[in-house]
Amino acid sequence: xxxxxxxxxxxxxxxxxxxxxxxxxxxxxxxxxxxxxxxxxxxxxxxxxxxxxxxxxxxxxxxxxxxxxxxxxxxxxxxxxxxxxxxxxxxxx
Length: 93
Known about the structure:
By secondary structure, the protein is α+β, with helices and mostly antiparallel strands. It contains 2 helices and 6 strands; from the N terminus they run E-H-E-H-E-E-E-E. Strand 4 and strand 5 form a beta hairpin. GO terms for molecular function: rRNA binding; structural constituent of ribosome.
């Protein structure tokens, strides 16, 4: 699970949960097949589709020097109906 960083919870990603689609940030060097294999192996689910896009790094200034953070990749993973990723379904109290 080295490639998957963390789950993303935005308005769009919460709306996509109703369509059995889960959003997470992954390492930029990871491929779709690697991520699909990791998700299916770790969570025991069946992935039917994966969409991804690269998000640019943000600019950061340190004194007179302008730098930037690393870019990263965001994956939207669609699961087969009847499957779900348990940690993202539980409600907080």
